[in-house]
Amino acid sequence: MALRPLRPMTATAAPALPVGAEWTYEVKWDGYRALAVKDGRRVQLVSRNLKDLTSTYPAIAAAVHTLQHKTAMLDGEIVALDAKGRPSFQALQHRATSSLHLVFYAFDLVQLDGRDLTRRPLDERRARLAALELTPPIFLSDPLPGSPERIEAAVRRLGLEGVVAKRRDSRYEAGKRSDAWIKVKFCARQEFVVGGYKPNASNFDSLLVGYYEGRQLRFAGKVRAGFTPHARRELLERLTPLQAARCPFVNLPASRTGHWGEGVTADEMLTLRWVKPRIVVEVTFTEWTRDANLRHAAYVGLRDDKPARAVRREDA
User: Fold this and answer.
1) Same domain for 115 and 145?
2) What is the CATH number of the domain that holds 180?
3) Checking DSSP bridges between strand 138-140 and strand 162-167, what pairing results, if any?
4) Which residues are catalytic?
5) Which residue from 272, 307, 300, 265 is spatially nearest to 285, judged by alpha carbons?
6) What DSSP designation does 70 have?
């Protein structure tokens, strides 16, 4: 029977790292979450929504093939590294024209030689992972030493995105967001769904983004900053075929705009173009306003690895 990839286990957002001997800590890599699967001679890389990435990252796929085991399933992150070894999500977006180094950081082992490891504790899975002979560009994502305070200070100093804390005894809950894994980001940043845009003479002035609350898409704000000319062209090419007649956001129009211009009034609605909520983007921002809108939002990149319906507000 063919080895089928699982949907990855995901972490719960929190404002601070948990403390205690039962927790272990690792870098939150700024890339694409992926599973690397070897099943005999067959090798596959899949995203967290099970999109096939094998042909997109051939060097990583080739390294998976060298594993000295008949079957294996590794969980990890595909990351683009700059000259200083720092992750660059924007470079990962433009890998075809980028000279940056692509790697796969493996941080979990879900299956090995026909044995399902999902019910085994994290410490055991990690020990088995560490025992594998990994071929570059696959590397082990080692746990971070030291206290949570020192780990946070070091990761902040390096300018990395954040830290993930995991319970040492946690099982691998495929497809679930678990509080046995806690992610702490050191800047306000998350994925949002594009529901429309404000056009200008050549392209667009801003994106209108939101998140799902149950089955409803709620407007979160306008994104005006962070776009390169290439990103604007790429986004408009993707959005044009998705144009729709109706606004997909349940909480628009707003009765007024806030001090920072976050809301969308009925008059402004007439100038906007709506799209089917299919495209997911990553956005940084300074904070949520009292009206539940984003303040000073800036575009980071596309998230082809996450389905729109999975996007929720992360309050931590």
Assistant:
1) yes
2) 3.30.470.30
3) unpaired
4) 28
5) 300
6) S
315 within some domain: no
Same domain, 52 and 122: yes
- Number of helical (H) and strand (E) elements in the chain, helices listed first: 6, 19
Task: Give the integer Cα–Cα distance in Å for 166 and 26.
Answer: 8
pLDDT digit string (tens) for 86-131?
Answer: 888 877 876 654 556 899 999 999 999 999 999 999 999 999 999 9
Residue type, 203: N
Query: Which stretches does DSSP call E strand in 48-132?
Result: 71-81, 101-112, 115-116
Q: Where are the alpha helices (DSSP H) in 7-160?
A: 58-65, 89-93, 122-130, 148-157
Geometric angle at alpha carbon 243, from 239 and 248, rounded to 5°: 100
Which one of 156, 185, 214 terminates a domain?
185
Torsion angle (degrees, nearest 10) of CA 221, 224, 228, 229: 110
The pLDDT tens digits of the residues spanning 217-250 come to: 999 999 999 999 999 999 999 999 999 999 999 9
User: Distance between CA 297 and CA 293 in Å, rounded?
Assistant: 10
Count of other CB atoms within 10 angstroms of residue 232: 16
Please give the structure tokens belonging to residue 57.
């990252």
Owning domain of residue 109: 10-185
User: Is 193 found in the same domain as 181?
Assistant: no
Amino acid at 19: V
For residue 267, the tally of other CB atoms under 10 A from its CB is 8
